[in-house]
């Protein structure tokens, strides 16, 4: 599914703004059949949870409804007309007037509907979108809906971030020609100083395909015809971390000598490979510095915000970060485009987080308590099918982004129990079949060391989340250092694969200080990170360090978290803690070397 764009043959209308909003209850029947009877309005894009003072809305479990009137531009008379929803968390349905036109499972990936036959150019229609925030044992991510004694419902889940819901990204009205480019796949390679761009174009309709590759000055550097082929660029400018260069592959559908559709794709010429214990970009060893992040800000929740996008990337540049992981779900496409343009490397992750009942049981279970003997007892074939859908849709959306160097198919699943192999092996195979050009990984949880984990054998790169000095050896940094190095040596000896520490850190209250090794202080956070860095520098196959987390973020309420997770090196409003300055000193030194 191509991202909608404005081109010589396509037009695009953003439907961002205030929509009528209502929470579904027993009194709300067929809300799409007539104008919503509500005084509430909600902005799109944004989560709805923190907008209103009524806690019943914040804690609502089930459907909510968005509605607005849309006028189709009168110039679209001979075009196909589409509604595209960039994200509806976690399930969405779309109605044009009283007709259901689309439904989609999965809260962080787009879907669309062709509504040409239901609307008229120049006329208005009523657009209603329902969003269901419920998570079940069969969804990605999973959860459970429970009924309280008073009859109300509550959502429980096994991931440590707040279950924000709503229309988190833009809703679009788009036009495209009746004969059009339906999909484009680009794979790049390097042959000496020559860049190689292999492409494949899928058309809807009958037309000739022409392609041109333009440099950043708009000059054509290669061209050809045909639905599939290869372009060679002499003295190519490579896409490099921190030094992005983007060509534009302009694809044209031509009928009778007339261009009936045009679609451009940004192309970064680069290669990615794993070589023994090294991770290579353009044949050169690459060391990841950066963070796990979240789409999370005050009031708007997970709603995409371009101001925060720009500011967050400025902070990444300031601190010397060259990468991040889309923990723990696909981020907005605007984020991926921005990373392409600015040379930030991305580990792209599905929404498969919380596939671990031990995490749901709290710290005791995480560190070796009871869990399912068989993985399938907790997560079975229905979830696996949902998981496959997530992988397919993620790779289909992000396959052409040069910033994406690796797919992460899950975060901290239970990889200790029997049946784990059966569940995960086909998922790795599917990802590799869909994209054989990028490494595939998952993120290993702390209670699954090398002699226990049943899934690491499938991964190209070992991604580890470790909290020695916090959840284990809390307050004892000397012991934490010894245990961390001992485990990393075990991974290195058993697998010899590249390793990235994708999470490490400590909860920290901004402004809390101590001259001692006192957990929750800014000094302790900085000292704990320094312990990890000393160990990383002694382990040859460590190829990356991504601190948890970039910024403080909201979690579910409870006694384990007070106003969210405080492991950010920036506060939720992006103020640096002491650790940010320590990381900047280390990472800028790594870049200079």
UniProtKB/TrEMBL annotation:
Domain Glycoside hydrolase family 2 catalytic positions: 272-590
EC number: 3.2.1.31
Domain Glycoside hydrolase family 2 immunoglobulin-like beta-sandwich: 179-270
Pfam families in UniProt: Glyco_hydro_2, Glyco_hydro_2_C, Glyco_hydro_2_N
NCBIfam families on file: PRK10150.1 (NF007538)
InterPro entries: Beta-gal/glucu_dom_sf (IPR036156), Galactose-bd-like_sf (IPR008979), GH (IPR017853), Glyco_hydro_2 (IPR006101), Glyco_hydro_2_AS (IPR023232), Glyco_hydro_2_cat (IPR006103), Glyco_hydro_2_CS (IPR023230), Glyco_hydro_2_N (IPR006104)
Single GO MF descriptor: beta-glucuronidase activity
UniProt similarity note: Belongs to the glycosyl hydrolase 2 family.
Domain (Glycosyl hydrolases family 2 sugar binding): residue spans on this chain: 14-177
UniProt KW keywords: Glycosidase, Hydrolase
PANTHER family: BETA-GLUCURONIDASE
Protein name: Beta-glucuronidase
Class of enzymatic activity (EC top level): hydrolase
């Amino acid at each position: 599914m191509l991202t909608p764009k404005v081109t010589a043959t396509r037009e695009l209308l953003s439907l961002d703004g205030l929509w009528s909003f209502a929470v579904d209850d027993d009194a709300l029947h067929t809300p799409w059949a007539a104008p919503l009877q509500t005084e509430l309005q909600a902005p799109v894009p944004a989560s709805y949870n923190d907008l209103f003072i009524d806690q019943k809305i914040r804690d609502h479990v089930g459907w909510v409804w968005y509605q607005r009137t849309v006028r189709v531009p009168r110039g679209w008379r001979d075009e196909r007309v589409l509604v595209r929803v960039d994200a509806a968390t976690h399930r969405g349905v779309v109605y044009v007037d009283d007709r259901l036109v689309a439904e989609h499972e999965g809260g962080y990936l787009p879907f669309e509907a062709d509504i040409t036959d239901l609307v008229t150019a120049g006329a208005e229609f009523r657009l209603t979108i329902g969003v269901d925030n419920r998570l079940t044992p069969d969804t990605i991510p999973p959860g459970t809906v429970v009924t309280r004694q008073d009859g109300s419902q509550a959502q429980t889940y096994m991931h440590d971030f707040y279950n924000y819901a709503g229309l988190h990204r833009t809703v679009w009205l788009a036009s495209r020609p009746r004969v059009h480019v339906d999909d484009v796949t680009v794979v790049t390679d390097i042959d000496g100083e020559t860049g190689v761009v292999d492409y494949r174009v899928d058309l809807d309709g009958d037309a000739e395909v022409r392609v041109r590759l333009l440099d950043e000055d708009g000059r054509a550097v290669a061209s050809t015809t045909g639905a599939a082929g290869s372009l060679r660029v002499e003295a190519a400018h490579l896409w490099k971390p921190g030094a992005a260069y983007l060509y534009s592959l302009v694809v044209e559908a031509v009928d009778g000598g007339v261009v009936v559709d045009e679609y451009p794709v940004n192309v970064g010429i680069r290669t990615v490979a794993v070589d023994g214990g090294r991770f290579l970009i353009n044949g050169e060893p690459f060391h990841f510095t950066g963070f796990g992040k979240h789409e999370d800000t005050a009031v708007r929740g997970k709603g995409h915000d371009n101001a925060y996008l720009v500011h967050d990337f400025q902070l990444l540049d300031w601190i010397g970060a060259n990468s991040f992981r889309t923990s723990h779900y696909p981020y907005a496409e605007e984020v991926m485009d921005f990373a392409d343009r600015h040379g930030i490397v991305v580990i792209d992750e599905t929404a498969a987080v919380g596939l671990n009942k031990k995490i749901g049981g709290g710290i005791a279970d995480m560190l070796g308590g009871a869990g399912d003997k068989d993985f399938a007892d907790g997560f079975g074939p229905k979830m696996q099918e949902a998981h496959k859908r997530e992988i397919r849709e993620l790779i289909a959306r992000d396959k052409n982004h040069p910033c994406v160097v690796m797919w992460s198919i899950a975060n901290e699943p239970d990889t200790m129990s029997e049946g784990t192999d059966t569940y995960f092996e086909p998922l790795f195979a599917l990802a590799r079949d869909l994209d054989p050009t990028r490494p595939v990984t998952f993120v290993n949880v702390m209670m699954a060391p090398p002699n226990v984990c049943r899934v690491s054998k499938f991964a190209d790169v070992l991604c580890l989340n470790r909290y020695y000095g916090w959840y284990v050896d809390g307050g004892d940094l000397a012991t934490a250092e010894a245990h961390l190095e001992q485990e990393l040596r075990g991974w290195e000896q058993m697998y010899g694969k590249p390793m990235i520490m994708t999470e490490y850190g400590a909860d920290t209250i901004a402004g809390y200080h101590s001259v001692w090794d006192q957990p929750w202080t800014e000094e302790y956070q900085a000292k704990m990170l320094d312990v990890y860095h000393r160990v990383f520098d002694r382990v040859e196959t460590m190829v990356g360090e991504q601190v948890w987390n970039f910024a403080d973020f909201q979690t579910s309420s409870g006694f384990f978290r007070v106003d969210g997770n405080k492991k950010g090196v920036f506060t939720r409003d992006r103020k640096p803690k002491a650790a940010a300055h320590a990381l900047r000193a280390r990472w800028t030194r790594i870049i200079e070397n």
